[in-house]
Specification:
Elements: H1 4-16, E1 19-24, H2 32-45, E2 50-54, H3 62-65, E3 74-76, E4 79-81, E5 83-84, E6 90-93, H4 108-119, E7 128-132, H5 139-148, E8 152-157, H6 159-163, H7 166-176, E9 181-192, E10 199-200, H8 207-214, E11 219-225, H9 227-234, H10 245-258
The structure holds adenosine-5'-diphosphate (ADP).
Length: 259
């Protein structure tokens, strides 16, 4: 008969297999949440056992992006049980726990505690956990790095963001903490014409790839600014679930992340 300590060892062993991939950016509005959601969906389609955590405690958006706003997680032995999104990705966000639109006025330790609850949940057979980080370099980032030890980080930036070195700051934070840099994704890279699909580059092309090289990390790919991506994201229908050109682009990035 296994004793309590055996159970604890078994749980620790199980917990160790969770490969946490943080998705981060230097500032907000660059498409970090959009990429996180689509990365999770694309990895699932590629056959990975993936879960999604919305670590943007103050401004959660994953419940809307993944059409799971109406779900409430249960708890077992003080651990949350993730909710299931319609596309079959288990997930947790503060939006599942607090009333929509209610402002949280929490200090660092409470935020760090909330993050712990979301990550140390009962993830079952999940092997890869995509964590949508809040923008910038604050308490949640430090807590994430120190307590939850991500296996790697994907940095998202737009072409303008790179010029403003916001992305560089995010890269530095993870680099200093020795979190492996999985690579850089350039979002809103060029404008995809909704009529003919042709992508034009109002901010020029190739800047992000060059910047990734300069910062010594792989370039994972570019996602254009496309009305369809915004429309489907708002409707809780991630483009990565589809087979069109955007779905393919997200899957190509997911393949590199999974390597
Ligand atoms: P962040 O998480 O970095 O704050 P979001 O993922 O919330 O950014 O994206 C900000 C807004 O831009 C959202 O309305 C989203 O739908 C839109 N968006 C993100 N990426 C794209 C894209 N490639 N094409 C069109 N709209 C996009």
């Amino acid at each position: 008969v296994p004793g309590v300590s055996d159970v604890r060892i078994a749980m620790t062993a199980e917990r160790k297999e969770l490969r946490i991939i943080a998705v981060a950016s230097g500032k907000g509005g660059v498409g970090k949440s959009t990429l996180s959601a689509n990365l999770a969906v694309a990895l699932k389609r590629l056959g990975h056992r993936v879960g999604l955590v919305d670590a943007d405690i103050y401004g959660p958006s994953q419940a809307r992006l993944m059409a799971s706003e109406d779900q409430k997680p249960q708890a077992r032995d003080k651990h949350l049980i993730p909710v299931q999104s319609p596309v079959g990705v288990p997930m947790l966000s503060m939006a599942h726990l607090v009333e929509p639109g209610r402002a949280l006025a929490w200090r660092g330790p409470m935020v760090s505690n909330a993050l712990g609850q979301l990550i140390d949940a009962e993830w079952g057979d999940v092997e890869t956990l995509i964590v949508d980080m809040p923008p910038g370099t604050g308490d949640i980032q430090l807590s994430m790095i120190q307590k939850h030890k991500p296996a790697g980080v994907v940095i998202v930036s737009t072409p303008q963001d790179l010029a403003l070195i916001d992305a560089t700051r995010a890269v530095n934070l993870f680099e200093q903490a020795h979190v492996p840099l999985i690579g850089l994704v350039e979002n809103m890279a060029g404008y995809a014409c909704p009529h003919c699909g042709e992508v034009s580059d109002p901010f020029g092309a190739g800047g992000a790839e060059a910047a990734a090289k300069e910062m010594g990390m792989p370039f994972l790919g570019r996602i254009p600014l496309a009305i369809d991506i915004r429309r489907r994201s708002d409707a809780g229908d991630p483009p990565a679930a589809g087979d069109d050109v955007h779905g393919q682009a997200f899957r190509a990035i997911a393949e590199k992340v999974a390597e």
